[in-house]
Design brief:
Largest sheet: 8 strands, mixed
Number of domains: 3
CATH architecture of the largest domain: Alpha-Beta Complex
CATH superfamily of the largest domain: 2-enoyl-CoA Hydratase, Chain A, domain 1
Distance between the termini: 57 Å
């Protein structure tokens, strides 16, 4: 049947019962990302299938990692550069359309990750069966890249599942477990992993009947009247979380479906191709793809070999306790130390609550909890491969702790500090083995913030940095190596932004107006709300260090009163109720200052330029990645350096000079602008 085809990525099996099994095993990668080579071979296979007409065809993966994680994103930039974006999207559409029209049953056999183009291939098949393995996830996450499913997914998903379920899948970008996919009709059957291929072959032979309710829902929600109503509802929902000018993809997807529906597949596919190709070549998608590639770069910094099994955390406060709980959650043995058990108990309680939310299997939850052990006496130091200090920000206290730990520390163990602002040159003084001493700076809340700064100094061994990066990967965090100057990267860049927000607040600009300006720019949270969330005490502590570093006074507004430290006290710059800020009403006739956005954002960008110039990070990509993943800096803008280059360095420098002339030297351009 397939004689004469030269295949690198696909294996073929023609069974005696007339079923053809096509196994994707991409030759040059660990995962089955859909490259041009993979798709070209698939096109040749589909052409033969259309001619030979077997009894059925099964698509399955030869990779342990999973089915198909999506298109090969690394090739996007090259495709765009050649002006081939529309052709690339259209060719994928037409290939999958040919699969959907094959005159015999086709089945996608899914295990592990099945995302984007992988899910679109499965939707082009007549049936889908999935393994119930823990790592099976099925989704359409293209919105996270500034586009939407472009190989027929935005047409076939609503047609198969009904609009509500399909758009929930596409607008959130979340991956579904096999059982969840079965519940909405995305897969027809769920089986144990070893039975996957046999189940797929059985589906090809006997088929499956979808429940009547699913079929009626799919029909009813795609009618013209339903599309008009549902589209308006979805736009309102999306608008609460994203601005159209920042993230146009979800709005474009809803509008394309509202106008074209799914009954005329050819017309709907062409509309999809035109819209997605336009989005893919726009700045949002280009920046989000860049952010994705930056994330992949960070994941690969340390490799897999970290040599760490036992983690010992000293300091059971919110940060230390949550670091310990997270490390145990990710499979490490963890001992948690503090002065008395009464200080550790709240951390263990928070861990229990976190595990109850994240781990549904009681046996696995108990297993995870057993890895987290209270250790008042600090016996775990001698057993640990990594010791993390997470006590209060006092250099003398940290030195005392380090000296005590070094007395029993294993020769191969790493000693790390979670300091947020104290220079590593200060903390490394007196260390027995400074080559194995580094900063490992987590961000709060630990479970949600993806970034960890690996803080370096000139006595640090490169192997220690590599091991820590590998450890970060093992706990599902993104590592960024940074210099040990005060504030490191993230806090150093955030400090002038937050300080200027406080200055504006004290000048009388309402907090809600300041926050709104930041949100309009694309920040995930306004700076006044952020200061309260972090805590005025923490902001003041970091602010003092950074003010001294820059030789500038601390803003008058960063004063801390008892019981008014922010969210944790229920009162700060805002009043807090039920964990939410209560922002005073802004007078209807209030007009915000014309330079409000520039005063907020340009100090941040200015400091980023300075960090790049003085080598706080190795390059602009790492800086942008660190700021995006550490602060939530508008991802669609690609990071502060990318933003500065897009806006024009000369233009932004001139704005800073004008602000400096008007408000003072804190706005003076820092060194490095000429090099952008």
């Amino acid at each position: 049947m397939f004689e004469g085809l030269r295949l690198q990525h696909w294996r073929t099996q023609v069974r005696a019962d007339g079923i053809v099994v096509l196994t994707l095993d991409r030759a040059d990668q660990n995962v089955n990302a859909l490259s041009r080579g993979v798709l070209d071979e698939l096109a040749a296979l589909v052409e033969r299938l259309a001619i030979e007409k077997p009894k059925g065809a099964v698509f399955i993966s030869g990779k342990k990692a999973g089915f198909i994680p999506g298109a090969d994103i690394k090739g996007f930039e090259a495709i765009h550069a050649r002006g081939e974006t529309f052709d690339w999207i259209r060719s994928g559409q037409l290939l999958f359309d040919r699969i959907s029209k094959l005159p015999f049953p086709t089945v996608a056999a899914i295990h592990g990750h099945c995302m984007g183009g992988g899910t679109e291939l499965s939707l082009a098949c007549r049936y889908r069966v999935a393994s119930n393995a823990d790592n099976t996830r099925i989704g359409l996450p293209e919105v996270k890249l500034g586009i939407y499913p472009g190989w027929g997914g935005s047409v076939r998903a609503p047609k198969l599942l009904g609009a509500p379920a399909a758009f929930d899948l596409m607008l959130t970008g979340r991956g579904l477990r096999a059982s969840q996919a079965r519940a909405i009709g995305l897969v027809d059957k769920v089986v144990e992993g070893p039975l996957l291929e046999d189940a797929a072959i059985e589906l090809a032979k006997k088929g499956a009947q979808r429940p009547l309710k699913q079929r009626l829902t799919a029909w009813a929600t795609n009618t013209w009247p339903a599309r008009q109503v549902l589209a308006n509802m979805m736009v309102k929902q999306v608008s609460r979380k994203a601005r159209k000018e920042h993230y146009p993809a979800p709005f474009a997807m809803i509008e394309a479906w509202r106008r074209n529906g799914v009954s005329n597949v050819g017309k709907a596919l062409m509309a999809e191709a035109k819209a997605v190709s336009k989005l893919a070549t726009g700045p949002t998608a280009m920046n989000l793809v860049r952010v994705f590639l930056l994330m992949e770069r960070l994941k690969g910094l340390g490799g897999k070999d970290h040599g760490i099994q036992h983690v010992h955390v000293v300091g059971a406060g919110v940060m230390g306790g949550d670091i310990a709980a997270w490390a145990a959650f990710r499979g490490f043995t963890v001992t948690l130390q503090d002065r008395e058990m009464k200080y550790i108990e709240p951390a263990l309680k928070r861990a229990d609550e976190f595990y109850a939310k994240k781990i549904k299997d009681e046996a696995k939850r108990a297993e995870t909890r057993a890895r987290l052990v209270a250790d008042v006496e600090g016996a775990g130091v001698a057993k640990a491969d990594l010791v993390i200090e997470a006590i209060f920000e006092n250099a003398e206290a940290k030195h005392t702790l380090f000296k005590k730990a070094e007395a029993t520390l294993k020769p191969s163990a790493i000693l790390a500090t979670n300091t947020s602002s104290i220079a590593l040159e200060i903390l490394r003084e007196g260390r027995i083995d400074p080559a194995r001493f580094a900063g490992l700076h987590f961000f709060n809340p630990v479970a949600l913030m993806p970034l960890v700064e690996i803080v370096q100094h000139d006595g640090l061994d490169a192997e220690t940095t590599r091991r820590l990066a590998a450890f970060c990967k093992a706990i599902d965090k993104l590592p960024v190596p940074v210099a040990g100057t005060p504030g490191f990267l993230v806090n150093r860049i955030l400090a002038p932004y937050m300080q200027e927000a406080i200055t504006l607040f004290r000048e009388g600009v309402p907090g809600a107006v300041i926050d709104k300006a930041a949100l309009k720019f694309g920040m995930p949270m306004g700076p006044i709300e952020l200061v309260d969330t972090v805590g005025l005490d923490v902001a003041a502590s970091v602010g003092k260090i950074m003010a001294a570093f820059h030789g500038q006074p601390l803003p008058d507004g960063l004063t801390v009163e008892d019981g008014k430290r922010g969210k944790k006290d229920g009162q700060g710059l805002y009043k807090w109720e039920n964990g939410k800020a209560v922002k005073p009403e802004v007078p209807a006739d209030y007009t915000a200052p014309d330079d409000l956005e520039d005063r907020l954002i340009l100090p941040l960008v200015n400091e980023a330029v300075s960090c790049l110039a003085d080598g706080t990070v190795a390059d602009a990509d790492l800086l942008d990645a660190g700021v995006i993943f550490g602060t939530g800096f508008a991802p669609f803008r690609g990071g502060p350096i990318s933003y500065a280059r897009a806006e024009g360095p000369a233009k932004l420098k001139a704005k800073l000079e004008a602000l400096a002339a008007k408000y003072g030297p804190r706005f003076a351009p820092r060194p490095g602008w000429e090099a952008l």
